[in-house]
Amino acid sequence: MDRKTIWSTCCTAAILALTGCNGGSDAAAPAVGPSTPTAAAPSLHAAPTPSTDPRTAEPSAAPLATVVVVSSTGDQEATMPDPITYPLQKVVKSDAEWRAQLTETQYRVARHEATEPPFDNEYNNNKRRGIYACIACGLPLYSSDKKYDSGTGWPSFWQEIDPRHIGTRKDWKLIYTRIELHCARCESHLGHVFEDGPEPTGLRHCINSASLKFIPADDQPDPKT
């Protein structure tokens, strides 16, 4: 074998060694011992992880909506008069039925996603203790102990009573995307949620007063009777 052939053979062997190619040979892969089993390749069609969405999960406690409102002497329990079972039973009515049930402003806001004027609305400055329920179906949505003054002119809350009571969807009506909020039981429009609220959630639920019915704590039945 001449010097040129030897040099070419050595270069080829070096390239194959560096690239990890086996040159098309039938060399076996390194054996894997019983203590180090081969990991299965991830499936592209794996079964979806079971949903843990709290909106559809069955409650572990009694199906009454109980919220806590803060009083000057401590915490006070308040139980809504109507029992709530899960999953929520949808309330469906015709447009004519909603129009007959609601005022003109309530109808435009709750059923057609209009927005009431800031500051000039019923609950922006409401300081009383109680529960804010859906104006259309009465589902409890927010409590006064989670309400705060955001300075925006609309009632603002940093947390809902129960995440199963609030539905969300993307809203593209403006030049940027917002997250719209609606009653999970009757689909009535409530407002939008923004990520500029106070701790501990950092959220601001900006809600139209026209979509809410306020139930003062004094008007709520005593859960112990």
Note the topology.
Elements: H1 3-19, E1 66-71, E2 74-79, H2 95-101, H3 104-112, E3 130-134, E4 140-143, E5 147-148, E6 156-157, E7 166-171, E8 178-183, E9 189-194, E10 204-207, E11 212-216
Antiparallel strand pairs: 1-2, 3-4, 3-11, 5-6, 6-10, 7-8, 8-9, 9-10
The count of β-strands is 11
Global mean pLDDT: 75
- The CATH architecture term of the domain at 66-219 is Beta Complex
Helix content: 10-25%
Tell the overall outline: globular
What's the order of the H and E elements?
A: HEEHHEEEEEEEEE
Describe the strand arrangement of the main beta sheet, using strand numbers: 5-6-10-9-8-7
Low-pLDDT stretches:
3-65, 67-73
Radius of gyration: 31 Å
Give me the number of helical elements: 3
> Span between N and C termini?
106 Å
The assigned structural class equals alpha+beta
Task: Please provide a written account of the structure.
With 225 residues, the chain is α+β, with helices and mostly antiparallel strands. 15% of the residues lie in helices and 23% in strands. The protein contains three helices and eleven strands; from the N terminus they run H-E-E-H-H-E-E-E-E-E-E-E-E-E. The strands form three sheets. The chain has a six-stranded antiparallel sheet. It has a three-stranded antiparallel sheet with strand order 4-3-11, with no helix packed on it. It has a two-stranded antiparallel sheet with strand order 1-2. The radius of gyration is 31 Å and the shape is globular. The N terminus is likely disordered.
Précis, in short:
The chain is α+β, with helices and mostly antiparallel strands and 225 residues long. It has helices at 3-19, 95-101, 104-112, and strands at residues 66-71, 74-79, 130-134, 140-143, 147-148, 156-157, 166-171, 178-183, 189-194, 204-207, 212-216.
